[in-house]
What does this fold into?
Amino acid sequence: MIKIREAFEGKKAFIAYLMAGDPGLAASAEYILTAQEAGADLIEIGIPFSDPIAEGEVIQAASVRALNAGTRLDGVFEMVASIKDRMRIPAVFMTYLNPVFVYGYDRFFARCAEIGISGAIIPDLPFEEQGEVKTVAAKYGVEIVTLVAPTSEKRAAEIARNAEGFIYLVSSMGVTGVRDEITADLPAIVSELRKSARVPIAVGFGISTPEQVKRVSAAADGVIVGSALVRVVAQYGTEAGRALFHTIEAMKGV
It folds into this structure.
């Protein structure tokens, strides 16, 4: 299993988010490898879910397309397993607590370990209730990545002290999606988190242009781009590979 920390070693990490099963699982496998070849340092694989509360309309629509295409959790595991031997960078799942709970914690994280998934991001898992999930995940070497919002304030230091893999710093209030401007004082927030954090800090939510990537990367250890990439897949469907490659290459190269 490739460890999350490897994505941040000696560089600013570019983390690419793609929805599994959009437009189909075969295309997802291709696009994950495309993102890797374009320069992504870590892949965040979304597991489609009917109630993705942290997502904006772009990723919500991708989730619907994936579910309508018949994507289910076992299929996502099989898709990732099919490209495991070609992966040179770490991969994490972005999911919600319900699918993990229903599948069974031990079964879910055991399968993650089998196919080389290094971590899981579960936005609706409260920090105060992470213990049960982390204990099981740790048995299989899977790290639980915690989100920190600009409004976390007093809780941020405690979250940072207990963080695994990397800290997912939410750039602004609201859900995922393309934004014209990032208004949070990211340098100040990152500086404060560094006082407690033992893992890298990556910023996500709303980052969609090379200029935003450059600005955010100057403050943080990594940048997460999701909706901008999912829009490319939505536009081109099964022919999105080339456009996806050039989009990531342009952002990674700033």
